[in-house]
Structure formats: C-alpha cells, structure tokens
Amino acid sequence: MTKNARFDAMVKAPWEDAPRLVYADWLTENDDPRGEFIVLQCRLSSGKLAPKDVKAAKAREAELLDAHREEWFGPLEKWLRERDSYALSHVKLRRGFVSSCRLTVQQRDDLATLFQKAPLLEELELRGDAATPVPQLAQLERLDAEGAVAESLLPALGTASSLERLHLSMKADQPLSVELSRCPKLHSLWFDGDRVTEVKLPSTLRAVRWSGDSTALVKALSPNLTTLAISGAVVSEALLAVLQRCAPTLEVLALDGAKFGKGQLATVLGSPWPRLKSLDLSNVGLGLEGAKLVAAMKAPHLELLDLTYTRVTDAGAVAVLSSPLLETLKEISLRANKLTSAAVAPVLKRKHSLRLLNLKKNALGAAELKALEKQLPETRLSR
Questions:
Q1: What's the rounded Cα separation, in Å, for the pair 146 and 138?
Q2: Biggest CA pair distance of the chain
Q3: Most CB within 10 Å of its CB: which of 24, 92, 129, 185?
Q4: CA–CA dist 313, 291 (Å, integer)
C-alpha cells in the first residue's frame, strides 16, 4: 500500500487509531520522525500509559515538536494567523495531527481550504464571514461558531454524524429552523440566537443552554435532560410542564431573567429535585416569598445557588441561610440585593461547607466585610 493510500485510509476514519498507526509505521520505515510522533501521541491519548511512561513520552513529544513543528504544522499555523492573530493559541495537536483550531473566515472557500490543510480535525472554532459547507463537517465532534459563519452552516449541520457538542451564536436576518434530530451523538447544545421558528433535537441530547425566544425549543426538549439553561424566558405552561417532567433527572437548572406567572414559581420550586446540583435564578424578582420557596426546596444535593439581583431582603436571605440547603451548598451568590450583615447571621451560627458566599454590591461596608471574613475564614465573600 502506498503512502497516499495509507493517508487516505486515515482520513476516511479520522476517529480510529489503527489507520494512523499503519501510516506511522510507513513513515518510520522511511526514516521520517513524524511516525514516532504519531505513535507517541496515540499512546498518550489512550490513557493506558503508566505515570512514569507518560512523563517520558511527553518529554520526547516536546523534543520532536521543538525540532519539527514548523515543518509539520507551520504552513497551517501561518495561514490561520493571517486571518486571525489569536488563532495560533487555539491550535491543538492530538494523535499526531491538528485536532482543534480556530478559523476566522474571510472567504467562502476557507472551510474547504482548512480541511485540506488539517483533514483530521475533531474540534473547530469558527468566526467571521459566511462559509460554504463541506462534507467534512460530519466528522467534527465539537463545533463552536458565531456570527455569519454560524448561520451559513446551520442547514448543513443536520446530518453531522459525529457531532457531540455544538455551540452556535448568531443574529439572523431570516427565520431559522434548527434541525438537529439526525445528529445521533449530539449530547450538548448551546444556542444564542433569535427568529427561531422550528426546533428538532435528537433524543440523545442531555444538555441545553438557550438564549433567545424559547417557544419553539420547549416543544422539542427530551425528558431526560441533565442540564437546562434558558435565559430570559417567559415561563409558559409548556415550559412549566417541561420543568416538572425533567425534575427527576436535571442536575443543572438556570432560569436567569425568567418571568414567572402567578403560582408558577411555587410549582417549579415545589417539585422534588433529587439530582439537582446547581440552580441559577439570577435576575428573577423573588422577593421575600420567592426566597422562602427556595428555602423550602427538596434538593438534597444542591451545591451551587445563584440569587444575584433577585430583590431578596435580609429576611429572605435569613430564610435561605437557615434552611436545610446549607447542609450541601458550597457556593451561594446573594450579590446585588442590598443586604446587611444581619442576613449572614445564620451562617455564623451553624456548621456549613460554603466556599463562596458572594455578598458583593450589598449594603455592607468595608469594615463589616472584613469582620465577616475573619468570622468565616474558609469562605470567600466575593468572586
């Protein structure tokens, strides 16, 4: 088998080590040190090397890169740098080749050129102008795209068979359809955009972070989510039903800036949350009654609680800090609520594991904060 045939076999199966090692053998047999480099990185990525062997392999990897990086990867890095001076720091090498990089698109065919120069890409960060989609998008495991290039690629991502994590940020001029139901491995979606009229998602999806109108999203959500973050949502009956349906599996819930109707907050917080570890209600007008609902939550594993700018009073903070939640909480933000030192009194009187109690932008003077820092030596009072 020729060198080109071995290379083509590698490109056709970019997720497999075996074709890379066959190619590496040919290089080594022909006195090309790139073969040794490919083998070293494949061994390092396998996670099977003993600690002492890892140290030796990394040392040899560094030697080879010092001697040959410009020869092996210099042309690609120069091309990326011509488009974005920050691109060089985003180039990552894995299993002998460029596995991850950042490209700022300037011409529509830049994506095709990139895959010619780095045919074994696994992760890609894209910025800049619109680009012409290429078939190699299907091999990516992770894509982070924003602006015009994100919008131009969205229709082509519906059949990205290897895609596991997708992060898109755009401001569309036309209504959008987010069709991802045929991405069989997709488990994490971050979307920041507007004008979305239809959303189709795969059942594999476990984490969703969404900014913008969530009306179409809510209809597509799976009941097995572990992470759900929706910014600025107007809580509809459909979203309320999703939250109740997902309560048994959710570990992260962020509803920052959400607008709740009458009784809806009580319905959400009154559900059992057996796995919840992180809750973000920042910029939600909780007040005293909302704080009491938080304090009464059935969330035995909650570790992070964000109540930034929620109009919580001293009485509301006391309710939360006196609750059983303090048995597991490690971080609480009460930032920007005009609290006084009286709000912290319950923490001073009980055993807790707080690493962070964010009291920044409250009605506590510098002297009061210093005094509290002495009384809470294991807990930071601002981020």
A1: 18
A2: 77
A3: 24
A4: 9
- pLDDT tens, the chain, 383 aa long: 789 999 999 999 998 999 999 999 999 999 999 999 999 999 999 988 999 899 999 999 999 999 999 999 999 999 999 999 787 778 999 999 999 999 999 999 999 999 999 999 999 999 999 999 999 999 999 999 999 999 999 999 988 889 999 999 998 888 889 999 999 999 999 999 988 999 999 999 999 999 988 999 998 998 889 999 999 999 999 999 999 999 999 999 999 999 999 999 999 999 999 999 999 999 999 999 999 999 999 999 999 999 999 999 999 999 999 999 999 999 999 999 999 999 999 999 998 999 999 999 999 988 999 999 999 999 999 86
| pTM of the shown model | 0.90
The beta strand positions in the chain, using DSSP E, are 92-94, 97-105, 123-128, 142-146, 165-169, 176-179, 188-192, 196-200, 207-211, 227-231, 252-254, 278-280, 304-306, 331-333, 356-358
How far apart are the C-alpha atoms of 162 and 157, rounded to whole Å?
10
C-alpha 16: how far from chain center: 25
Q: Is position 58 within any domain?
A: yes
Asked if residues 224 and 206 have their Cβ atoms less than 8 Å apart, the reply is yes
CB-count burial class (<10 Å; 0-12, 13-18, 19+) for 287: middle
91 part of a folded domain: yes
- Split into its structural domains, the chain has a count of 1
Start-to-end CA span in the chain (Å): 59
Question: Which residues share a beta bridge with 357?
Answer: 332
51-to-21, 55, 62, 68, 100 alpha-carbon distances in Å:
22, 6, 17, 26, 25
